[in-house]
Design goal:
The protein has 296 residues and is mainly alpha-helical. It has twelve helices and no strands.
């Protein structure tokens, strides 16, 4: 598999991004279906159990089990707390507000990464990053249109999910400097399962998914892993400046799914705000790509 620095292959990257978009969209639909019986903690618990079986089975088949190590456990813990919080907020948000609004607010995650990177990655906070953050915040406000006297919980959860995903991405970036991907995925599924068990058991009532809902739980688990695998593979075939615009196609796709399956309104402020958020992200990615080329 080529790296992003090798010859670009946009056609293959686009093909993998179609898989990522389909997987993310299927996960959103499955997450809503599961919410009829399971809360977000229970969903994360069962999803992680399936994830452990998948990661161990695949890594065993590939002879990669020895790649799993106990080094950097504090970083693994920080990453997975951040991811667990973000994913729970995301699953809660998709049951409360239109899917298009959730995805648009999720796209603010790279903005948070740009702001948090100077703290955790010792990267410089430039004027461009401040501009990107300001544009992203403006877009988020257009999407959310918050009534500050009565802000919808779903909007708060979607915005919090973006922050959680940003923290997860930053800690993942630190881990990938020394840790194999198999080790990162293993501790991801194990820790998320542990967190899910603890949080689900707090109220003393852990729901067991019915036969009818269990396939949807499996869809959530499989599509979650598939989406990130497709996205990572796409980035190996083309630079982020080519791949990320494909990811933005998730918004119209999920918006149409919302209209089709749930009769959700397709509102122009959501699309306008999402375009501003995308523009801010693309500006940041383009600048980073130029900087990396200059360094090379």
């Amino acid at each position: 598999m080529p790296s992003a620095t090798d010859a670009s292959n946009p056609v293959r990257a686009a093909t993998w991004m179609i898989g990522a978009i389909a997987s993310f969209s299927a996960m959103a639909v499955a997450g809503r279906a599961v919410s009829a019986e399971l809360d977000t903690f229970e969903l994360m618990m069962y999803r992680s159990f399936i994830g452990i079986a998948l990661v161990v089975g695949i890594s065993g088949a590939l002879g990669k089990l020895n790649d799993i190590s106990t080094q950097n456990m504090p970083l693994h813990l920080a990453r997975n707390i951040s991811h667990f919080a973000g994913q729970n907020f995301w699953f809660a948000a998709i049951t409360m507000i239109p899917l298009a609004q959730v995805i648009a607010l999720e796209f603010t995650s790279p903005i948070w990464i740009a702001l948090l990177a100077p703290i955790f990655l010792a990267e410089k906070l430039t004027r461009l990053r401040l501009l990107v953050a300001a544009l992203g915040f403006t877009g988020a406000m257009i999407v959310a249109r918050p009534d500050f006297s009565n802000v919808e919980p779903g909007v708060i959860f979607a915005a919090a999910a973006a922050i959680g995903f940003a923290g997860s991405a930053i800690f993942t970036k630190i881990l990938t400097r020394t840790e194999p991907i198999i080790s990162i995925l293993f501790w991801l599924t194990v820790m998320q399962a542990l967190f899910g068990v603890i949080c689900s058991a707090i109220d003393g009532d852990v729901a067991i998914p019915s036969v009818a809902i269990m396939p949807w739980v499996g869809v959530v688990a499989i599509t979650g892993l598939a989406a990130h695998f497709c996205l990572t593979t796409a980035l190996s075939y083309a630079p982020a400046t080519i791949v990320m615009p494909f990811d933005f196609a998730r918004l119209p796709v999920i918006a149409l799914i919302g209209v089709w399956l749930y009769s959700e309104p397709l509102e122009w402020p959501v699309l306008l705000g999402a375009c501003i958020i995308f523009g801010a992200n693309y500006l940041n990615i383009s600048a980073e790509s130029r900087r990396n080329r200059a360094l090379r």
